[in-house]
Amino acid sequence: MYQDYNEYEKFYQTNLGKNIKYLISSQLKKYIYLYDGDRVGCFGFSHNYLDNVKSESIEIFNCFSEKIGTKKNFENNRSVNILLEEDKLPIEDLFLNHILSIHYLENSNNLKKTLREFWRVLSPEGKAYLILPNKKSSWSHSSKSPFASGFGFSKKQISRFLEDNFFEIQFIERLVYFPPWDYKLILNNKFFFEKMGSYFWRLLNGVYLCVIKKR
């Protein structure tokens, strides 16, 4: 079952949505370094993960597939919003310095073509940051989870399709070990779940954070 823009937006307004965004954002901040003049492509529903970007000289392009859509009155003076076909991006070669993809690749109709388009529009040595659902996790099966939309992946599958499409993998990190339940006790102790989960149920992470470089 695929979700649309309104469903994703509604989820991220809940306590559960705010907490998973905070956890993922705190990890992304460790790896995304943006400089004046950089161009960033935000694919899927990833634009709200860059709320902390302050520089006015960084260009942000919010790219939404027709499947997910966008809302009619999307106002943001610091970015450009694009509704696109995922296998034929309306972006010139080597244009983007960074790509952030969340709730996008798992909804792709043709993963190979979509990744080849990412490769085409990235500048030499450009980096992409991908959040992908783990198909073994409860986050891939819960009706409350936005990561149950589309299809999930194993770590081995992710490595294979990235290498097959000319990307160098910097690392793949396992994230989100707390369950998709909106309980205050769980959400208040999400970092405890992260620490315990990485030891005791390591393979049941909710999502993968992949940092890759154009090869």
Q: How would you explain this protein's 3D organization?
A:
The longest helix has 14 residues, at 15-28. The radius of gyration is 16 Å and the shape is globular. It is an alpha/beta fold. Strands 3-2-1-4-5-7-6 form a 7-stranded mixed β-sheet, with helices on both faces. It contains 6 helices and 7 strands. The mean pLDDT is 90.
Q: Tell me about the biggest sheet?
A: 7 strands, mixed
The N- and C-terminal alpha carbons lie at a distance of: 34 Å
What is the number of helical segments per DSSP (H or I, 4+ residues)? 6
Structural class: alpha/beta
Can you list the strand order of the major beta sheet?
3-2-1-4-5-7-6
Rg is 16 Å
Order of helices and strands: HHEEEEHEHEHHE
> What is the helix fraction of residues, given as a range?
25-40%
Q: Ranges with pLDDT <50 over ≥5 residues?
A: none
- Name the beta content range: 25-35%
**Can you tell me the overall shape?**
globular
Number of strands: 7
Give the topology:
Elements (H helix, E strand, L loop, with lengths): L4 H7 L3 H14 L10 E6 L14 E7 L13 E6 L11 E7 L8 H11 E12 L21 H10 L2 E9 L8 H5 L1 H11 L6 E8 L1
Parallel strand pairs: 1-2, 1-4, 2-3, 4-5
Antiparallel strand pairs: 5-7, 6-7
List the main descriptive attributes of the protein structure presented here.
single chain, 215 residues, alpha/beta, seven-stranded mixed sheet
Provide a compact summary of the structure.
The protein is of the alpha/beta class. The protein has 6 helices and 7 strands, in the order ααββββαβαβααβ. It has helices spanning 5-11, 15-28, 111-121, 155-164, 184-188, 190-200, and strands spanning 39-44, 59-65, 79-84, 96-102, 122-133, 167-175, 207-214.
